[in-house]
Request: fold
Amino acid sequence: MRTRPDRLSRIALPSGTVTVDEHGYLTDPGLWSREFAEHAAGSEGIELTPRHWAVISFMRDWLDEHGIAADARFVLDFLARHEGLDRRGAKAALFELFPYGYVRQACKIAGMKQPRAWSTG
Reply:
C-alpha cells in the first residue's frame, strides 16, 4: 500500500504530452503510443526489436480486450506459441527481452499503469 501520492511528471512526445508517475509508468494507458514505447525503452536501456514489438502488441491487445494488464503467465504463453518454445524457454526469452523484469520494463514500455499489487521485479 502506498502512503503518499505519486509524483507525476509530463513527457513531451511528437504525438503529444503524456503524464507518467515517478517510476515512468503512464498514468493513462489510453495515451500510449509507439513514441512513448521508444522513449520508455530508451530510459531502460532497451533497443526495441521485432520480438519486443510482438510482446508489446500482445500486451496492448490484451489490455484492449480485457481492460486490465496481462498477467506475466499469459505473456509467457504467448511467447511460447509465437516462438515455438517450452515454458522454460519462454521465461528465458522474456528475461532476454526485458532483463529487469516483466513489471519493471515490459509493463512500463507497453504503457500499463504501474501495478499496485505486484512486485516491481
Observations:
- The mean pLDDT is 91.
- Residues 9-109 form one domain.
